[in-house]
TrEMBL record:
Protein name: Pyridoxal phosphate homeostasis protein
Function according to Swiss-Prot or TrEMBL: Pyridoxal 5'-phosphate (PLP)-binding protein, which is involved in PLP homeostasis.
Organism per entry: Muribaculum gordoncarteri
Names of the cofactor(s): pyridoxal 5'-phosphate
Keyword Zinc-finger: no
Pfam families the record matches: Ala_racemase_N
Gene3D superfamilies, sorted: Alanine racemase (3.20.20.10)
Alphabetized UniProt keyword annotations: Pyridoxal phosphate
Family recorded in the similarity comment: Belongs to the pyridoxal phosphate-binding protein YggS/PROSC family.
High-level lineage: Bacteria, Pseudomonadati, Bacteroidota, Bacteroidia, Bacteroidales
Alanine racemase N-terminal domain span: 3-221
Length: 223
């Protein structure tokens, strides 16, 4: 097995069976993705629209692409034909744009609502109250081509393990509140995407069932 495939194998071996691994391949070349692919991995995350499209066009069709970065509304129609899921929905406008682009391509797109719980102002996302206000309008009834599958979030970028845990617990409890209020009968609203290379073990302890791991698999990124 090549090194990348080996590292994916090792991570998966230590994850509970219900936790999905998204291999975050942003800034890494197609050859690295193919090494993971040859080891059997199929789910990859990218954070820039042009990079995702360029990779998706030239790599195998059975790769499941997840968009995980901040998505500008003017890039939505370029990425929608290629993605299984957009994890980083952070505005009503973006959600509507994704629905429209999905209509144009006759292709339903899975989305996660991004929650902002971290200390850093620079991170994107909704507060729980904002999502509550958005869903309370009944907007989703009119957006038939997006499927809201759950939430995504990041913990604060700090060393303090307690703060990280607190952030992940806030994301988990926001998921539970939304599930109870708006998605109780929707078994597809079932994804809690949280945890990256340095904090995914804590995230899984706090209820994550989708982790997004780049550096541990592919090495440091060269920006
Ligand atoms: C880059 C990125 C990751 C992966 O981070 P690593 O520390 O390399 O594992 C996960 N989630 C999001 C939203 C990212 O932008």
């Amino acid at each position: 097995m090549n090194d990348i495939a080996q590292r994916i194998h090792d991570i998966k071996a230590n994850l509970p069976g219900n936790v999905e691994l998204v291999a975050v391949s942003k800034f890494h070349p197609k050859e690295a993705i193919m090494e993971a692919y040859e080891g059997g991995h199929r789910v990859f995350g990218e954070s820039r629209a042009n990079e995702l499209v360029e990779k998706a066009r030239s790599l195998p069709d059975d790769i499941e692409w997840h968009f995980i970065g901040h998505l500008q509304t003017n890039k939505v129609s370029t990425v929608v034909p290629y993605v299984k899921m957009i994890q980083s929905v952070d505005s009503e406008r973006l959600l509507i744009k994704i629905n429209n682009a999905a209509c144009d391509t006759s292709r339903q797109v899975d989305v996660l609502l991004q929650l902002h719980v971290a200390l850093e102002e620079t991170k994107f996302g909704f507060t729980l109250d904002e999502i509550d206000a958005l869903l309370g309008t009944g907007l989703l009834d009119r957006l038939n081509m997006v499927k809201v599958r759950g939430v995504m979030g990041m913990a604060s970028n700090v060393d303090d393990e307690n703060r990280i845990r607190q952030d992940f617990m806030a994301i988990k409890s926001a998921f539970d509140a939304l599930k109870g209020k708006y998605f109780a009968d929707d078994s597809d609203f079932n994804i809690i995407s949280m945890g990256m290379s340095h904090d995914y073990e804590t995230a899984v302890e706090c209820g994550s069932n989708m982790v997004r791991i780049g550096t541990t698999i592919f090495g440091e990124r060269e920006y």
